Recover the amino acids of this structure.
């Protein structure tokens, strides 16, 4: 079937083209709203700027297809193959991409607000500048979204559900993850420099060797998180919860942890030089060889903590509760 025949039939209210072979057709800018293209072979098809609202593309093959600028609002792309496809600037708001394969696809500046991205394959996918607000990438049957190697610089994931997602080594520089659910997510060696993680849920998340320099984590929940060797230079962790977290050899130089909670956390060999820990709670924390040079611990609670080998050169302790329960007197 050629493009003209398809459009003629659609004009006659024929909307079911499932299972057809439409390889290489030029359908740029066409309007095919509510059309059924499930299980259709659309390899290398040009659908740029096309209007495809509520289109059914379940299990279709869209390998190397051009969907740049296309409108796919509420489209069903479940299990579709979009390998190496161009979706630059496409509108996929509320689209269903459950188990879709977007390996090597270009989703730069795409709109994926409220999209269903459960179990989607996003290996080496370019999502720079894409909007994924309230998108669903939650863990499903233990198969979370695969984002390994994806480029997510500047992506908007505010409120997105990324529970259990594999984001190891992913670049999220300057990304908006405010209120995002990252519980149990793997962010090992991820680049989150300058990212907004305000009030994000990172309980039991793996952030080993992650780059969080100059990031914003105010109010974030990081209970039992693993931040070994993580970089948090000049980051804002005000009123952040790090109870029972692993911070061994993490670098918090110049960071702000005002009123943060680090009870029973492991801070051994961590770098807290020139860090603001005013009114922070470090009850029963382990500070083995922790560097607190020029750190501000005024009003902090260190009751029952172990700081016997901590480096306290020029540390400010006015009003702090010491490990023995007494208040520091200058």
């Amino acid at each position: 079937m050629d493009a003209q025949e398809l459009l003629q039939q659609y004009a006659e209210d024929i909307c079911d083209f499932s299972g057809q072979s439409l390889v290489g057709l030029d359908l740029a800018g066409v309007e095919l709203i509510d059309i059924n293209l499930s299980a259709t072979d659309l390899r290398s098809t040009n659908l740029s700027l096309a209007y495809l609202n509520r289109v059914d593309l379940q299990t279709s093959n869209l390998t190397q297809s051009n969907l740049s600028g296309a409108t796919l609002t509420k489209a069903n792309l479940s299990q579709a193959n979009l390998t190496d496809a161009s979706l630059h600037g496409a509108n996929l708001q509320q689209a269903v991409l459950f188990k879709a394969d977007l390996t090597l696809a270009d989703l730069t500046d795409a709109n994926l607000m409220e999209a269903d991205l459960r179990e989607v394959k996003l290996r080496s996918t370019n999502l720079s500048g894409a909007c994924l607000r309230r998108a669903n990438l939650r863990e499903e049957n233990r198969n979370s979204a695969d984002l390994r190697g994806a480029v997510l610089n500047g992506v908007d994931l505010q409120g997105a559900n990324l529970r259990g997602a594999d984001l190891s080594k992913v670049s999220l520089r300057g990304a908006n993850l405010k209120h995002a659910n990252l519980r149990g997510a793997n962010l090992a060696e991820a680049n989150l420099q300058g990212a907004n993680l305000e009030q994000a849920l990172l309980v039991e998340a793996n952030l080993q060797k992650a780059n969080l320099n100059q990031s914003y984590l105010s109010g974030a929940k990081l209970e039992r998180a693993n931040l070994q060797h993580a970089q948090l230079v000049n980051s804002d962790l005000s009123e952040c919860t790090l109870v029972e977290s692993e911070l061994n050899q993490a670098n918090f130089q110049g960071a702000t942890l005002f009123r943060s909670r680090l009870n029973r956390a492991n801070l051994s060999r961590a770098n807290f030089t020139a860090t603001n820990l005013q009114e922070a709670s470090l009850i029963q924390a382990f500070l083995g060889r922790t560097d607190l040079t020029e750190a501000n611990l005024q009003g902090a609670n260190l009751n029952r903590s172990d700081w016997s080998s901590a480096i306290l050169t020029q540390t400010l302790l006015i009003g702090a509760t010491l490990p023995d329960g007494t208040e520091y007197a200058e």
Notes: Residues 1-116 form a domain with the Pectate Lyase C-like fold (CATH 2.160.20.80). The CA atoms of residues 168 and 187 lie 5 Å apart. The chain has a mean pLDDT of 94. The longest helix spans residues 3-11.
